[in-house]
Design goal:
Length: 91
């Protein structure tokens, strides 16, 4: 499902990006996300009962499990977008 983003989340223009830095940032963020999941599991955090602020609308609270699920789906979309770019480059 496509959803338009809000201005604070608009990506930088292509001219300002260096692919090595973007890839390094992406991998670092993925590693950090996995570490958070592991930390929550080790600490036996009740992800279904723990509430956190929504990153876009801070007064809206989400369950931690919902937050992780939304983030995972969002990342899957980014991976799909990358695959589409690779397909276009191969044509």
């Amino acid at each position: 499902m496509k959803v338009k983003t809000v201005k604070p989340f608009y990506p930088e223009t292509k001219a300002n990006l260096k692919k090595e830095l973007v890839l390094n940032d992406f991998v670092h963020l993925q590693d950090s996300f996995i570490d958070l999941l592991k930390d929550a599991q080790v600490a036996s955090v009740d992800s279904g009962g723990t509430k956190v602020a929504n990153p876009l609308v801070t007064f809206v609270k989400m369950r931690l499990s919902e937050c992780f699920a939304v983030a995972e789906v969002h990342q899957r979309r980014h991976m799909w977008q990358a695959e589409q770019v690779l397909k276009q480059l191969q044509e």
